Amino acid sequence: MAKLTKKSKKKTIEKNINHARAYVTATFNNTLVTLTDQNGSTIAWGSAGASGFKGARKSTPFAATTVVEKIATTAKENGVSSIEIYLKGPGPGRDSSIRAFKAAGLNITLIADVTPIPHNGPRAKKRRRT
């Protein structure tokens, strides 16, 4: 009997997207970057861990720069010339990711901080008895 193999088709990406959005999530342990079009469809994504960094080196500004450089090259291949950057989180990759997008030759039209801030938040724990 013949063995059936399933061939996976890679989703085709629409070329010549002029304007894109970059979502940068900078945590204390990693930096995640997702590049989407105006509708929210992902064009490219990357993280410090996926770029080959492990352990404490994932949480460095250099790792974030490396991630953005890889994503910027795929963005340019797809025709992206200008981006909006949405930053989330307190990590060390925040500033270096913006500098890397600028150094890659992409025109930055917007930089927005979308870090969630609790307005009062959950109830605090009881005070410790001594």
From TrEMBL:
GO biological process: translation
Gene Ontology MF term list: rRNA binding; structural constituent of ribosome
Record keywords, A-Z: Ribonucleoprotein, Ribosomal protein, RNA-binding, rRNA-binding
Pfam families listed in its UniProt record: Ribosomal_S11 (PF00411)
Annotated Gene Ontology cellular component terms: ribonucleoprotein complex; ribosome
Assembly: Part of the 30S ribosomal subunit. Interacts with proteins S7 and S18. Binds to IF-3.
NCBIfam families: PRK05309.1, uS11_bact
Stated family: Belongs to the universal ribosomal protein uS11 family.
Function description: Located on the platform of the 30S subunit, it bridges several disparate RNA helices of the 16S rRNA. Forms part of the Shine-Dalgarno cleft in the 70S ribosome.
Protein name per UniProt: Small ribosomal subunit protein uS11
The species this protein was found in: Candidatus Curtissbacteria bacterium RIFCSPHIGHO2_02_FULL_40_16b
Lineage: Bacteria, Candidatus Curtissiibacteriota
